[in-house]
TrEMBL record:
This is IS66 family transposase. Keywords: Coiled coil. Residues 177-442 form the Transposase IS66 central domain. NCBIfam families: transpos_IS66. Residues 57-105 are annotated as: Disordered. Pfam families: DDE_Tnp_IS66 (PF03050), DUF6444 (PF20042). Residues 24-100 form the DUF6444 domain. It comes from Thiothrix fructosivorans. InterPro entries: DUF6444, Transposase-related, Transposase_IS66_central. Residues 59-72 have a biased composition (Low complexity). Residues 12-56 form a coiled coil.
Length: 498
């Protein structure tokens, strides 16, 4: 049906009435427009407040750099569950068989032999097969032996002619304290490797070895071991700074109620630690020293003095930030979801190339295409007007975009900083289960013992033998000559030889 045509006014009074009605309608529309503008401002303000609250209370270990232990029960419940495998528990068909290794005969303490009856039920004699007996070994821990106590007796005498007293001389190899090399070695290992408190070390030494020392003596033994481990500590620091690729990370360290920082620098074979009062660039420079290789880190600005062409950002940290961006509303969330998808695709493409390195040409094409999409998405986020937080993050990341792709320069550069996080994790556990250090001695002991024992374990060395050798030379007032079997650091710039 055709719409009704409005009747036009025929007189001047009717025209005036139409004009008045239109003016009233315009006034009403202006009021509605003003009300809509106020509501839009309120919506924008509430949306900003919501984003701030989500950013403050919605942060978890999955979308930020927070530790998993800091997640709330609700956040733990939201963690995605790993899909169960359809395979049964235990060994799978076709896998190499694993058997308990037997001690060789020379390491067997006692041998018990058992023989069958000499006569068979049929009346015949049973011939013993002496060549291949079935061997079953039972391992036990013997009661602790009595401690090895050496008493040093120093005599004095008096001259029968002049009456001058003469005292025996203290040999250099006799310790001035009450602990021998073995006890000090185990005090260091129990505290640095197994993270026991001084009170726990005191109890364990008594229960296992029947030796009793005060907690003050145990603390003093730790202090003695610091300069003895110094040569190995410096050796590891010099070695790791000469490598082509290293990982760096930092975590909190407390001295009393004051906050310090423990820094870690590691490669595939050694780990080096350092405590510092600062988390800034000066501390990072002290950690890196003369390091000129590629450095894998998170997006922390403290490593800003490292040239961008030598720094690789951790993609695991980037994924967590993108996951947080993807949880926002509007265009900011769309940009975050796109960045998250590109990050997952980049990691998957890189892992696939590591499994099939012969497809290098196709890998390069895919990575370059992903990089162009990554840059375009960051530029899109930079142009957003209604999501300031996403815009700032895209601007910050676009400035450091080249550091996301440094791994394309050298196949030895990994995508994540997993190595540094793994070596620093034991200290985080140590910090949570013990009191803070109370002096500068504790600040020196923790990084030194973690560097020495951590490197020894990574190299497959026996920590007890290593520490006993170190403490034996230290107690004898000799220069510690023990060193790690490390290759010489690279003499040239690794970037020139990569």
């Amino acid at each position: 049906m055709l719409a009704a045509v409005p009747t036009l006014p025929t007189t001047l009074d009717e025209a005036h009435q139409v004009i008045v009605r239109q003016q009233e309608r315009i006034t009403e529309l202006e009021k509605q427009a003003a009300r809509v503008a106020v509501l839009e401002q309120q919506v924008e303000m509430l949306q900003k407040q919501l984003e701030e609250l989500v950013a403050k209370f919605g942060s978890s270990s999955r979308n930020s750099s927070k530790a998993p232990s800091s997640d709330s029960p609700e956040q733990r419940a939201l963690r995605p569950k790993r899909k169960g495998s359809s395979r049964p528990h235990g060994g799978q068909p076709g896998h190499p068989r694993h058997e308990r290794a037997l001690y060789p005969p020379e390491q067997v303490t006692r041998t018990e032999q058992y023989f069958p009856e000499s006569t068979c039920s049929c009346g015949g004699a049973v011939a013993i097969d002496w060549g291949n007996p079935y061997r079953h070994q039972v391992t036990d821990i013997a009661p602790p032996p009595p401690p090895d106590v050496t008493e040093h007796q120093f005599y004095q005498g008096v001259c029968q002619s002049c009456g001058i007293k003469h005292h025996s001389q203290w040999p250099d190899w006799v310790p001035s304290g009450q602990m021998g090399a073995g006890v000090i070695a185990w005090v260091v290992i129990l505290s640095g490797q197994f993270r026991l408190s001084m009170r726990q070390i005191q109890v364990l030494l008594w229960e296992m070895c029947h030796v009793r020392f005060s907690t003050g003596a145990i603390s003093k033994a730790q202090g003695k071991a610091i300069p003895w481990m110094g040569p190995l500590y410096r050796q590891v620091g010099q070695y790791v700074r000469g490598q082509a690729v290293c990982h760096a990370d930092e975590t909190r360290h407390y001295r009393g109620t004051n906050t310090y920082w423990l820094w870690a620098l590691a490669d595939h074979s050694v780990s080096y630690f350092m405590t510092h009062y600062s988390r800034g660039k000066a501390a990072a420079d002290a950690l890196l020293g003369s390091f000129t290789g590629y450095l894998v880190t998170d997006h922390f600005s403290g490593y800003g003095n490292v040239p961008p062409e030598r720094r690789q950002l951790c993609w695991a940290h980037l994924i967590r930030h993108f996951r947080k961006m993807a949880g926002r509303c509007g265009e900011g969330g769309s940009v975050g979801k796109r960045l998250l998808l590109l990050a997952y695709t980049t990691v998957r493409t890189h892992h696939r190339w590591q499994q099939q390195p012969d497809e290098a040409a196709r890998y390069q094409r895919r990575i370059l295409r992903l990089r162009r999409s990554f840059q375009a998405t960051l530029n899109k986020g930079l142009a957003l007007e209604n999501c300031k937080r996403t815009t700032n993050q895209c601007k910050h990341l676009l400035k450091d975009e080249a550091m996301c792709w440094t791994f394309l320069k050298d196949s030895r550069i990994p995508l994540t900083n997993n190595r540094a996080e793994r070596v620093i994790r034991p200290y985080v556990q140590w910090r949570k289960t013990s009191f803070a250090s109370q002096s500068a001695q504790g600040d020196r002991f923790r990084p030194t013992v973690m560097t020495v024992l951590g490197t020894a374990r990574q190299l497959g060395m026996n920590m007890a033998i290593l520490m006993r050798d170190i403490c034996s030379q230290g107690l004898a007032h000799k220069s510690v000559s023990v060193r790690f079997p490390l290759a010489q650091p690279l003499a040239s710039n690794p970037l020139q030889t990569a």
